[in-house]
Amino acid sequence: MTLPAVRSRVEEIAEKGESLVALTAAQVSRLQAADFCRVSPTPEPGIWRIADVTRVGVVAIDERRLFVRPKTPLRSLIFMASYSGVQAQVSDSAYTYESDDDIPTALADALLRAVGEVTRRTLLKGYVAVDETGTVIRGRWDIARQLTKRPGIPAPVELTYDDYTEDVAENRILKAALRALMRMQQLPAHIVDRLGTSLIPFSEVSDLRPGAPVILPSESRLNSHYQPALRLARWVLEAMSWAHASGVSAGATFLLNVAKVYEDFVGRVFQEQLHVAGYDVDLQVSDWRLDAGGRVRMRPDIVVSRSGRVVTVADTKYKVWGGTSGSPPNADVYQALAYAITAGVPEAHLLYVSGEVEPRRYEIASAGVTVVAHAVDLSGGPDELIAAVQRLGEALA
Fold first, then answer.
1. Would you say 27 and 61 are in contact if contact means Cβ atoms under 8 Å apart?
2. Which residues contact 183 (CB under 8 A, 6 or more apart)?
3. Where does the pLDDT of residue 89 fall: very low under 50, low under 70, confident under 90, or very high at 90 and above?
4. Domain residue spans in the chain?
5. What angle do CA 332, 274, 383 make, to 5 degrees?
6. pLDDT digit string (tens) for 165-209?
7. Which of 127, 266, 309, 318 could in theory staple to 259 by disulfide, Cβ–Cβ 3.0 to 4.6 A?
8. Which pTM was predicted?
9. Residue 333 CB partners (closer than 8 Å, separation 6+)
């Protein structure tokens, strides 16, 4: 077997297919610990094959920086990450990046633009419950807390009141994402400078609790303009906290779960589209069980219902599948079949990524179920992306 020449310091690996990388045994061990790819030896000493990549971005191993470039165009990826139902019109220019931009830089730039839009006039404010000890009565006297902290002592008093403040969850999430990006070592200087400037309006906003899960506040009339920025902030924090939790080097590691971005985007488009037609779309349903004893758990990505009755179920697959790919992987078909049987519906859908390919139907006669495989092209502009997913939605309803 003849291997292609490999530089001593390979800086890039592919999300799709295989890459040959020069690594030491210690670096291989740390890369395997990151648990986002499969690393296997080659016949050539010191050269390792990397495949089955599940995240994109950059990973730091000692002094090495391995860049994982996505198979999805950056413009499409950033748009999907920021998408919210409030975006009726989008600008192509807002999601265009040069070919040499990496994921952290592109996502940081997109977040800065989104934060700049929502903070142009003033930060979002809201009412926050405040507990404090004071001598001047305001709000409600918390008698239970008073008796617990200082029984029999009338002053100072324990108070609870609502404060109208910028220190709300939405601003805390944006601040946390901006500060996290400030710690990235390989971001361009102009991005770092913009991050510092963008943090200035958040000086009175408190920090998120370290390690706390990022739960986006429910969308409302008051915070709808924050949604694209919040969604980008969530992906930033997830990419950096996941890497930290996995034990890879902090400060230069940023690994984004593109499969989850794709799943989230498709689900959001479906919810917006099918709600108008009277359907409910639930994402990541976690209470399904395949067996009567309830021991085999199932978690379908998308469940479409009407009047409380499941109509169909779908699973997103961030895998390339198309006209020349043959049938979908057997495991995917088995999974869709199990979902359909559990829900008692005649069809289940697999939603792959690829070019324009006509859906294929696989009839499982013994179960009375048809599994339909679709492919959506992620290479177009924002409006084309939404239209492509909406066509899938029409097939599900």
1. yes
2. 240, 250, 251
3. very low
4. 12-69, 74-122+173-247, 126-165, 260-396
5. 85
6. 888 999 999 999 999 999 887 889 999 999 999 999 999 899 987
7. 318
8. 0.84
9. 327, 350, 362, 371
- Would you state the torsion angle of the CA atoms of residues 163, 169, 175, 176, taken in this order, to the nearest 10 degrees? 130
CATH hierarchy code of domain 260-396: 3.40.1350
Q: Which conformational region is residue 199 in: left (phi greater than 0), alpha (psi within -120 to 50 degrees), or beta? A: alpha
Between 282 and 142, where is the model more confident? Answer: 282
Q: Given CA atoms 199, 205, 206, 209 in this order, what sign does their dihedral have?
A: negative
- Distance between CA atoms of 180 and 338, rounded to whole angstroms? 41
Question: What is the C-alpha separation between 54 and 230, in angstroms, rounded?
Answer: 23
Residue 219 three-state SS: coil
Distance, in Å, from the CA atom of 175 to the CA atom of 198, rounded to the nearest integer, reads 9
Could you say which DSSP state residue 235 is in? H
DSSP state of 306: E
